[in-house]
Amino acid sequence: MNINDFNARMAKKLELNSHKGSWLEIPAESLLASLMGEVGELQAALSDRRDEEHIIDECGDVANFAYMIATIAGDHVEASQGAGELLRCVECDFTSRSPKPFIRTMKTHPNGHVETIRYCMECVSKKLCRIRDRHYGKNNK
Fold it and tell me: Cα–Cα–Cα angle for 45, 48, 52, nearest 5°?
């Protein structure tokens, strides 16, 4: 499995769990406890010799919680550095010097370059509504 395929699985798992709300306000310690629980589930899947798809899914869960912790840590580092570069939402004209009003994600390009992408909260909300509408239909809100 290559990194792009694994990244796509991670993103799919995050999307499937998006109904649980934002994890950005959850303390890193709580996310670490969840990460450890996912490591236990991965260990059980390996011990039970479950199918490879299940093992890969559990690996994605572990990676997602590690990503969440890294994102929160990165936001704290950016915030502690004070007013830095002007950050911009990739979908609208919103800008800020603080990372707080953004959801940050990573995009891996075919050449392996990893780019940080930021969406403002309004654009994130619009994206989630579009996903909901695609999944459930516009009339089932």
Answer: 55
- Reported as a single tens digit per residue, the pLDDT across 23-69 is 777 888 888 899 999 999 999 999 887 789 999 999 999 999 998 88
The one-character DSSP state at 51 is -
Radius of gyration of the chain (CA): 17
Other Cβ atoms within 10 Å of 65 Cβ, number: 20
DSSP state at residue 127: H
Q: Are residues 3 and 65 in the same domain?
A: yes
Pairing of strands 114-120, 102-108: antiparallel
Structure tokens given for 7: 């990244």
Where a domain ends, among 60, 81, 102?
A: 81
Pair 88, 76 in one domain: no
Considering the domain architecture, whether residues 64 and 105 belong to the same structural domain is answered as no
Domain count, the chain: 2
Task: Please say whether the beta carbons of 77 and 30 come within 8 A.
Answer: no
Residue whose entry in the numeric block shows the structure tokens 């990573």: 106
- Where helices occur in the chain by DSSP H, the ranges are 3-16, 28-47, 52-80, 121-136
* Residues 9 and 54: beta-carbon distance below 8 Å: no
